[in-house]
Design brief:
The protein is 37% helix and 24% strand. With 78 residues, the chain is an alpha+beta fold. The protein starts with 12 loop residues before the first helix and ends with a helix.
């Protein structure tokens, strides 16, 4: 099997905050968290609520497909 390393994503906290707003409707500030292969950001809402935004490494696309399928499964339970 060939290993593909595309490198860790390189988003700024401002870009992460814009992504959170655009795709999830979250108006939040973002602070980068430690991560090995991807990028994680702590999103802080004005009301104190917090979320984590994960920007996955493109080399991990198969894992993303599994996560999307799981999200759809969980959404169907509600």
């Amino acid at each position: 099997m060939t290993s593909v390393h595309l490198g860790k994503p390189d988003f700024t906290p401002d870009e992460a905050a814009r992504l959170a707003r655009r795709y999830f409707g979250l108006a939040a500030s973002a602070r980068e968290l430690p991560s090995e292969r991807d990028q994680n950001f702590l999103l802080q809402m004005a009301d104190g609520e917090r979320y984590v935004l994960k920007v996955a490494n493109a080399a991990d696309i198969d894992g993303l497909k599994d996560a999307a399928a799981y999200k759809d499964y969980v959404a169907g339970l509600a």
